[in-house]
């Protein structure tokens, strides 16, 4: 058994001021954000460390403490045709606090004058306001924005400077959404006009868009990697070498967060909308679209999908014929992004599990693919058969319980119930505004097309139904 990665084993750790408070200890933030902080520190541009806050009562606090906040980031894949395979110990995390175990030490983070940034990723579910919560400075709010409001309030009552907040949650205008939730708490908890003014004047909420495929803990190579490293690491995280961060906010932020000076692929802009649309629809949209048919075809990873003749053709046609025509950027830019995205999906060195993408597939379909489906129909292009085929596969996948069906319980119940009457299933589900936020049954041709694809999958099986679809497009 190799020794555990810890300060005892790795003695090069520097003491730097804590400049970043980070809500979230998940794989993504540790590979994407903390790796970048590490690069800035190494080149000598930042000299700042990170204090992590565990947003939920359960999490990695214990493991992170045990390893003295050290862990390895593995970048694996091709970049500009060159094979990249790096293993780097991340040293910029100073501490991790669990507000449920030690609320005073959580509030204490706000006392530090060096702390300048608040960065978060609490998944799409994290930025929430709960109107039923009452105010307390003795125990943590149940939500991330609630805890953040407590931290900000603690900072404000000591007359200290505010923060630059950069949420990374994959929701539209995440900076605005986070600020809105904090203001809702401030109002609901009656924290006063002066505090509300302090939030507006002293704090800068940026929206941001993140892009890097982080496949997470390399379970299957665990032992082999520990042998190579010469230490045991329960927090290893694997990611592709590609990374891209778009930060929407005032340009002076870049002086304080010199990511670009460290040659990192980051853009500071006053409008991230085009980058967001391109990424959410082409990359995340393809991911979400491939999951149900690929799972029904018994595939397990994104790479397997890209190696599969039928499914890779399916994704390619979906992107070219249905997604790209709906986006408002120059065609060649979109083509280039699509080409590099599909190349990234082929990365043979990371195991990106379809079941990890499958979580909450209905809400993902709603944000990533429904706008594509509607735009094609409303603009009277060809029927978006590929998007509809993916939806048919998803309904099929949700027909019965499986490992990959992890979604909102009410949504699952509605779909299961609708399957009890296959004759009316399509109309029942498309007209359910609770699921889609609107009635989709009146979209021209949608019911017929969805019914056809469902019938084909039911009658011939996924493969054969897919062949029908691909053959139809070739004609
Ligand atoms: N893995 C990727 O390739 C990738 C790439 C870009 C963006 N993302 C996004 O990043 C998010 C996190 O991914 P990850 O791989 O780090 O996942 P993870 O499971 O490793 O970490 C999830 C983190 O979110 C927190 N969290 C979960 N639900 C929460 C809630 N309701 N309230 C507050 N905090 C909550 C957890 O405490 C944890 O810190 C995902 O939602 C994903 O959309 C992931
Ligand atoms: O992380 P999710 O579950 O919201 O979505 C799954 C993938 O589409 C996503 O993680 C991408 O890999 C990532 O957004 C790439 O930047």
Automatic annotation (TrEMBL):
Q: Which reaction does it catalyse?
A: D-mannitol 1-phosphate + NAD(+) = beta-D-fructose 6-phosphate + NADH + H(+)
Superkingdom of source: Bacteria
Pfam families associated with the record: Mannitol_dh, Mannitol_dh_C
Keyword presence, Transcription regulation: no
Mannitol dehydrogenase N-terminal domain location is: 19-259
Q: Which Gene Ontology molecular-function terms are recorded?
A: mannitol-1-phosphate 5-dehydrogenase activity; tagaturonate reductase activity
Q: Where is the Mannitol dehydrogenase C-terminal domain?
A: 271-457
Please list the GO biological process terms of this entry.
D-galacturonate catabolic process; mannitol catabolic process
Q: Is Nucleotidyltransferase among the key words of this record?
A: no
What SUPFAM superfamilies does this protein's entry cite?
6-phosphogluconate dehydrogenase C-terminal domain-like (SSF48179), NAD(P)-binding Rossmann-fold domains (SSF51735)
Its Gene Ontology cellular component terms are: cytosol
UniProt KW keywords: NAD, Oxidoreductase
Family matches, as PANTHER family: ALTRONATE OXIDOREDUCTASE-RELATED, MANNITOL-1-PHOSPHATE 5-DEHYDROGENASE
Q: What is this protein called?
A: Mannitol dehydrogenase
């Amino acid at each position: 058994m190799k020794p555990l990665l810890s300060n005892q084993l790795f003695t090069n750790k520097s003491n730097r001021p804590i400049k970043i408070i980070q809500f979230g200890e998940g794989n993504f933030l540790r590979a994407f954000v903390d790796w970048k902080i590490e690069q800035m520190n190494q080149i000598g541009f930042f000299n700042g460390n990170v204090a992590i806050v565990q947003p939920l009562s359960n999490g990695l606090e214990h493991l992170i403490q045990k390893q003295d906040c050290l862990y390895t980031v593995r970048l694996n894949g091709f970049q500009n045709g060159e094979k990249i395979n790096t293993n780097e110990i991340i040293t910029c995390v100073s501490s991790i606090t669990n507000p449920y175990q030690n609320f005073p030490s959580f509030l204490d983070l706000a006392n530090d004058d060096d702390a300048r940034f608040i960065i978060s990723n609490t998944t799409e579910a994290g930025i929430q306001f709960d109107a039923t919560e009452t105010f307390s400075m003795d125990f943590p709010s149940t939500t991330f924005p609630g805890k953040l409001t407590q931290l900000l309030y603690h900072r404000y009552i000591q007359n200290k400077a505010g923060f630059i907040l950069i949420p990374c949650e994959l929701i539209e205008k995440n900076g605005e959404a986070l600020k809105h939730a904090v203001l809702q708490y401030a109002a609901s908890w009656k924290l006063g006009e002066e505090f509300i003014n302090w939030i507006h004047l002293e704090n800068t909420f940026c929206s941001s868009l993140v892009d890097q495929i982080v496949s997470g803990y390399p379970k299957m190579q665990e032992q082999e990697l520990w042998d190579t490293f010469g230490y045991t690491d329960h927090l290893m995280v694997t990611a592709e070498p590609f990374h891209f961060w778009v930060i929407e906010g005032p340009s002076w932020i870049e002086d304080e967060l010199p990511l670009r000076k460290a040659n990192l692929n980051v853009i500071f802009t006053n409008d991230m909308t085009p980058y967001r649309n391109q990424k959410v629809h082409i990359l995340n949209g393809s991911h979400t679209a491939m999951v149900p048919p690929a799972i029904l075809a018994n595939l397990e990873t994104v790479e397997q999908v890209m190696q599969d003749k039928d499914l890779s053709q399916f994704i390619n046609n979906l992107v070219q014929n249905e997604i790209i025509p709906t986006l408002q950027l120059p065609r060649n830019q979109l083509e280039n992004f699509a080409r590099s995205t599909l190349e990234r999906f082929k990365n043979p060195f990371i195991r990106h599990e379809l079941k990890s993408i499958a979580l909450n597939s209905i809400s993902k379909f709603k944000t990533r693919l429904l706008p594509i489906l509607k735009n094609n129909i409303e603009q009277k292009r060809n029927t978006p058969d590929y998007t509809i085929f993916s939806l048919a596969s998803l309904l099929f996948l949700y027909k019965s319980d499986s490992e990959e069906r992890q979604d909102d319980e009410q949504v699952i119940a509605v779909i299961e119930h609708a399957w009890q009457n296959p004759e009316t299933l399509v109309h029942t589900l498309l007209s359910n505004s609770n699921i889609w936020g609107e009635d989709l049954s009146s979209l021209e041709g949608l019911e017929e097309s969805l019914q056809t694809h469902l019938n084909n999958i039911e009658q011939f099986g996924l493969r054969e139904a897919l062949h029908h679809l691909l053959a139809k497009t070739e004609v």
